[in-house]
Write a structure and sequence with these properties.
The chain has twelve helices and no strands. The protein has 220 residues and is mostly helical.
């Protein structure tokens, strides 16, 4: 068996980073970003985040996939993005939602409540429903769950049905961490009931998804 030299990984990473930095066309940037993302090296997180601001949707998608794969190792770099760079911030919301690290809570809350793009609000809704709270001390989890619930309930009135659909999904996911005896349970159930109601502007697809979520809730 041939042993890998100790400095092989840094050398490989340096080559991957350089390829992204030297890319002189959209296709070259896409290929280089895909390669860096596929490497799964935490040292590539910073540059993958930079790619989010390059105005290259294909490369941004590849970067988001790579950042999600890196998980918590990518969170700090994502949180350091310039909030004034809307395009990059929108991609970062998607990445943070996919990672599910609780450090992204504030960004997801703000995105769901204020972002102009329905696709970003939709990603934020899904992310708020599936934050990974296991890393938190047990006594801190209820406060985070309450914040997620409040943001999702506020978004049940979102003007875009795709966002409301995602809110129904988010509420169902959030319910898995609650107990029917919790004070928040009734509010969550009420939110899903409202989404399941037939009314103007609430298409059947949203109603059906909310009903499915209600049917999956543990019985009190």
């Amino acid at each position: 068996m041939t042993l890998t030299a100790p400095d092989a990984m840094p050398s490989d990473l340096e080559t991957l980073l350089q390829a992204v930095q030297d890319a002189d066309s959209s296709s070259a940037l896409l290929q280089a970003t895909r390669a860096l993302a596929a490497s799964g090296h935490p040292g590539g997180a910073g540059l993958l985040v930079e790619v989010l601001a390059y105005n290259n949707p294909g490369a941004a998608v590849a970067a988001v996939d790579g950042l999600i794969a890196l998980g918590e190792a990518a969170v700090e770099a994502l949180l350091q993005l310039d909030p004034e760079n809307y395009g990059a911030r929108a991609w970062a919301v998607r990445a943070l939602a996919g990672i599910g690290d609780v450090r992204g809570l504030e960004v997801l809350e703000e995105a769901l409540g204020t972002d102009v793009a329905a696709s970003v609000r939709r990603a934020a809704a899904r992310g708020l429903g599936s934050l990974k709270l296991s890393a938190l001390p047990a006594e801190q989890r209820p406060a985070v769950q309450q914040r997620c619930l409040a943001a999702l309930l506020a978004a049940t009135g979102d003007g875009e049905w795709v966002v409301r659909y995602a809110v129904a999904v988010g509420l169902e996911q959030l319910a898995r961490g609650l107990h029917p005896a919790d004070a928040a349970w009734h509010l969550l159930e009420q939110g899903l009931t409202e989404l399941s109601a037939a009314n103007d502007g609430n298409p059947p697809v949203v109603q059906l998804r909310a009903k499915v979520a209600l049917s999956r809730l543990p019985r009190r």
